[in-house]
Amino acid sequence: MNRCSLYLGSVLCVMTAVAVAQTEDPGQPQLGGGQSPNLAFCQERFYEEDDGLIRCNWAVNFNFACFVSYPNNKIIQLGSKISEPEVVGECDNGERIIKILHY
Questions:
Q1: What share of the chain is helix, strand, coil (3-state, %, to 5)?
Q2: Cα end-to-end span (Å), the chain
Q3: From CA 64, how far away is CA 62, in angstroms rounded?
Q4: How many helices (H) and strands (E) does the chain have?
Q5: Per-residue confidence in pLDDT tens, the chain, 103 aa
Q6: Which residues of 20-44 are buried (b: 16+ CB within 10 A; e: fewer)?
Q7: The pairing of beta strand 53-55 with beta strand 48-50
Q8: pTM for this one?
């Protein structure tokens, strides 16, 4: 065997070992379910829970929530809510902003 063959063989062996180490063990339970929680902000006056759905003028952060002046088409399923609505501050016009954590 020449040096090249020996080198390639050792590289393949290491790559195989890394691949095996990164695979999941089917006997172990998966934690977390794969989806990360989301944080959503909206104006408190638009927050509405009805028929298993949550509607509001959802925004990605506090500042955007102050400028979205009407409910949008984004609907969150009530069952995906992790935390209860929490008032996190007020806009310049006095509008209260809430946040929720959801999947």
A1: 30, 30, 40
A2: 56
A3: 6
A4: 2, 6
A5: 555 444 444 444 444 444 444 444 455 555 556 789 999 999 999 999 999 999 999 999 999 999 988 888 899 999 999 999 999 999 999 999 999 999 9
A6: eeeeeeeeeeeeeeeeeeeebbbbe
A7: antiparallel
A8: 0.64
